[in-house]
Design brief:
This protein has about 300 residues and is of the alpha/beta class. It has one domain: Ureohydrolase domain (Arginase, Chain A). About 30% of the residues lie in helices and about 15% in strands. It has 8 helices and 8 strands. The protein has an 8-stranded parallel sheet, sandwiched between helices. The longest helix is centred in the C-terminal third of the chain and has 17 residues. The chain starts with 18 loop residues before the first strand and ends with a helix. Bound molecules: manganese (II) ion. The site of manganese (II) ion (MN) has 7 residues, from loops. Manganese (II) ion binds next to loops.
């Protein structure tokens, strides 16, 4: 791999690392804009431009150790199920070490394999998956595949995981009805987090309830961030852009509630998916690199 080291810091071994990054350049089932397979390398290059002092937390990013595992490259004719099984095994290897494992996609179809690896089991009962996303990703089958990015959360719920979905603003009727009748799914739509001015008559601002939920989660928690949860100006090249997303500072406020203020949850791992780099602006890949740095800072704060 000829990429620069993450954050341009001296790379740590897996054994000594505080954070273990797993690059996953995978886009078998992307349905609209392409290019997420190019994201990991672009994110690593963009990370060299991230300031090493996090002004928000005061954390120096060089005070903890970052390891980059070898990227898991999909074979040209490899079936999705076979690739995802390899991803699960590679992630499970990384989880044998002490540090926090972060998967970096690649498309959202990766997440079920990453959660199973983090849990060390295909049974996810008792696991809460916090999902930042524009889309519900609760379809049973999409474009003929149960491994589609549009089905990722459905697979997790079927394995008995609880899902807290944040920033949703696009769902099929099938997905909304599944979420409504399923006690395992709790949705905080983007519009109901956008402030009082954006509410229709009878609607309620859910931001206080979201912050309470994130601060109060207990037990095993996995965090998956689809970058399209953020407003499109932060990720204009992402494969399935949706207007009306979460702002940068509100997103960090929610992540801070989960990762810094909440002391009763056990973080199993996390992933950041669906970045599509655009070399003409660097906005997409820099947003992703900075978000990974922030997640590291939050997880090692205090
Ligand atoms: Mn998604």
């Amino acid at each position: 791999m000829t990429w620069p080291a993450f954050l341009d810091l001296p790379p740590a071994t897996a054994h000594e690392a505080d954070v273990l990054l797993l690059p996953l350049p995978y886009e078998a089932t992307v349905s609209y804009g392409r290019g997420t397979a190019l994201a990991p390398e672009a994110i690593w290059r963009a990370s060299c431009e991230v300031e090493l002092w996090d002004e928000q937390t005061g954390v120096d990013l060089e005070t903890f150790r970052w390891h980059t595992a070898p990227a898991i490259l999909p074979g040209r004719t490899e079936l999705a199920a076979d690739y995802l099984a390899r991803v699960q095994r590679a992630a499970a290897e990384l989880h044998r070490h002490e540090g926090l494992v972060m998967g970096v996609g690649g498309e959202h179809g990766l997440t079920p394999a990453l959660v199973r690896a983090a849990r060390g089991s295909n049974d996810l009962s008792g696991v809460t998956v916090v999902q930042f996303d524009a889309h519900a990703d609760l379809r049973d089958i999409y474009a003929g595949s149960p491994h589609s990015h549009a089905c990722a959360m459905r697979r997790l719920v079927e394995a008995s995981a609880q899902v807290i979905a944040v920033g949703i603003r696009s769902a099929a009727r099938e997905e909304a009805e599944f979420a409504n009748r399923n006690d395992l799914v709790t949705t905080f739509p983007a519009r109901l987090l956008a402030g009082e001015n954006h509410l229709l008559p009878g609607e309620e601002n859910l931001e206080p309830a979201l912050l309470d939920t994130l601060r109060g989660l207990e037990g095993d928690v996995y965090l998956t961030i689809d970058i399209d949860a953020l407003d499109v100006h932060l990720c204009p090249a992402t494969g399935t852009p949706q207007p009306g997303g979460l702002g940068w500072w509100p997103s960090l406020r929610y992540l801070h509630a989960l990762l810094v203020e909440n002391r009763s949850r056990r973080l199993l791992g996390l992933d950041l998916v669906e970045t599509v780099p655009d070399p003409s602006t660097h906005v997409n890949e820099f947003t992703a690199a900075l978000l990974l740095a922030k997640l590291g800072a939050f997880c090692h704060h205090g």
